[in-house]
Amino acid sequence: MGSNVITADQWLGAAKHRRTVYGLKGTSSVPDSRVQEILQQVLSFAPSSYNTQPVRITLVTGEKHKQFWDAIIAAAEPILKGAGEQVWTMMSGMFQAHKAAYGSVVFWESGNSIKEAGETHQSAAHMFGEFGDHATGMHQILVWTALELEGLGANLQHLNAIPPVEAALKKFCGVPDDYKLKAHLNYGDEAQDHPQVPQKLPFSETLKVIN
């Protein structure tokens, strides 16, 4: 076997650098073409169970990103106002901050790919929804880490928690009906110091070694 170009410690250091960054500018020091290249690289090698490849990605940048968030806000406002003006006031401020970022990497799951995988591998059909979650999570962390290593900041949002938002974004992005919104990654140049790793539980609670 050939020698590894990248060590495990280097890889873990890169992964550790990734943090949730909320303070983002409406600019990107990284060209759209480079972000697209990163997305293509991740899609070319990121794993999925049985290599079913259920992950789909939409890249939204610049002025289109502002319109993307306008669609989110329009769909979410009636729901959040229904929960109370205080809720809407708090959430609308957060939405405006996200809108101020430069771009979004939108992660979808292809429903047809999940269905076809279940038909092909019937004994595991009941698992492919969960397998899809694993696959999209791995794609998300790889893209997120790569963008931050390029010098950008990013934060992961799950606006599918507000049901009308998914329909609005599917329409905005022009994706097939079988796509399911999983999450989207806001990104842009950082407008804050890069965050440190938060406090974690002790290993005595999270790790067990059997030998």
Automatic annotation (TrEMBL):
InterPro entries: Frm2/Hbn1, Nitroreductase, Nitroreductase-like. Residues 16-188 form the Nitroreductase domain. Pfam families: Nitroreductase. It comes from the Eukaryota. This is Nitroreductase domain-containing protein. It comes from Neonectria punicea.
